[in-house]
Amino acid sequence: MENTLNAEAPPSDPWPGYFADRGHTGARRIGAGVEGVVYRLGEGRIAKVWSGRPPVGFDLGRQVYADIARHPLPFAAPEIFDVEDHEGVLVTYERELPGDPMRADSAHAAYERELPTRYSDALLAVLRGLAAVPGTDAMRQLTVQGDDRPLWRDHDRFRDALAALVARAAARHGAALAACVPDFDAGVERTRKALRSLPDAPVTVIHGDLVPPNIHVDAAGRPVAVLDFGFYTTAGDPAFEAAVTAAVWDMYGPHAEEHAEELSRLFAHELGYARMTLTVYQAAYALTTYDLFGLDDGDGHFRWCAEQLRRNAVFSA
């Protein structure tokens, strides 16, 4: 839940009293967003009071969080402890995540050319941690944003499931992307062929959106929490996580291309992934998310995806 609205509680806010009646004295409103309001309860817990019904797949998402929690990580991840219905209003009790965002999104802050070691070290720690969490049946049932079915449906291998997703996504609004990307149809087929040719790989949890605001760090720069699972969360090859993270860490800054290349090389070397595998996955990511926010150059994400494909060595071979 994005806490983007004023956190100040209205004078008649009944929820602190509601939580006090349940043993959470001193509950304090700390944020609000389009989905509802967040209260800090103390002892490492928060409560979310939903303004509407939970999103489709809420129970599945809760199970995914529980699956992740079964495997000790060097940082916190979301976890839903309890759910209750109060007069038709959903209330969830969740883990309070520590730390502060690694840094502002590159759309709102220009990143320096030099990539500080504290950031690359934090990214490597997160990638290693998530790669140690096995993929589960619940993760395989998740649907990637923008698609109409669980990613793994009718597939036994991540590479084949992703190739099928590329085909579906290209069929959605591919004409818009083809207007900006030369040889589009052939590039789609090259990417799908490259995906299907990838070697077998471990199946682990994939966050899929490790942009800097979704990684919280402590005062020393160590990652202490990862949040906002759901955009592209699934089970899959951990190399996909590394490829996407390298690409999205700096999407809009003046040195974005250089940072993506530097991180891709670093992750390939430190984590043992083939550099070309990361390139294949980066093309697949652009092809499966290009239309989620807009369909022309007026949208930053669409423009970024088109740029990625024009210079991707697999798509544009």
TrEMBL record:
Molecular function per GO: transferase activity
Alphabetical list of InterPro entries matching this protein: Aminoglycoside_PTrfase (IPR002575), Kinase-like_dom_sf (IPR011009)
Record-annotated Aminoglycoside phosphotransferase domain positions: 27-252
Gene3D superfamilies found in the cross-reference section: 3.90.1200.10
Keyword rRNA processing in annotation: no
Listed Pfam families: APH
Highest taxon, organism lineage: Bacteria
Record keywords, A-Z: Transferase
Protein name as annotated: Aminoglycoside phosphotransferase family protein
Organism, scientific name: Streptomyces kanamyceticus
